[in-house]
User: Which sequence fits this backbone?
């Protein structure tokens, strides 16, 4: 009969380590959520954490537990998380907050040229829209003028003047 205690203790130690790593990841996501307070970010980060921890527990059970999730493994993972939050979280959380602030400042610095480019493109599109609207009106006016002539020639009796000239011409022809 073999003694599996050494293997179980090794597996328990690895489960504790997995719980500690889960606590570190949760603290990182908490720092991100506290930096950018958006409800959707909280939902996304919690979902990512749950999926990542579920997958890591599954893979841990498949690899170390030979396909069986043993109760001491779950206890070890939970104990690792409790140990992390009790003793290490207060030490590491300021570090995560510093790095999230640094990344946020860097992202803001790198975003400025993109924001300027987007602003310029919006202004250029607005200006082009106005210009093409003007060109459309200009083309419509020119088309109207080419079909009907200038408004000053026909307005104010231009049509009547032509009739009058025809009458005068026909009267001269009749007299002659």
Assistant:
């Amino acid at each position: 009969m073999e003694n599996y205690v050494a293997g179980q203790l090794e597996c328990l130690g690895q489960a504790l380590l997995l719980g500690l790593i889960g606590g570190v990841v949760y603290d990182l996501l908490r720092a991100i959520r506290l930096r950018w307070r958006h409800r959707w970010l909280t939902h996304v980060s919690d979902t990512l954490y749950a999926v990542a921890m579920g997958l890591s527990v599954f893979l841990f059970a498949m690899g170390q537990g030979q396909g069986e999730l043993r109760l001491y493994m779950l206890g070890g993972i939970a104990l690792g998380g409790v140990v992390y939050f009790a003793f290490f979280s207060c030490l590491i959380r300021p570090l995560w907050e510093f790095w999230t602030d640094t990344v946020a400042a860097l992202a803001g610095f790198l975003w400025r040229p993109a924001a300027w480019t987007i602003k310029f493109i919006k202004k250029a599109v607005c200006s082009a829209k106005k210009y093409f609207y003007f060109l459309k009106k200009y083309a419509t006016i020119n088309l109207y003028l080419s079909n009907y002539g200038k408004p000053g020639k026909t307005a104010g009796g231009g049509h009547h003047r032509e009739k009058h000239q025809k009458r005068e011409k026909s009267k001269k022809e009749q007299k002659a």
Summary: The first helix runs from residue 5 to 35. Helices lie at 5-35, 39-64, 71-148, 151-154, 158-175. The chain has a mean pLDDT of 84. The chain has one domain: 5-175.
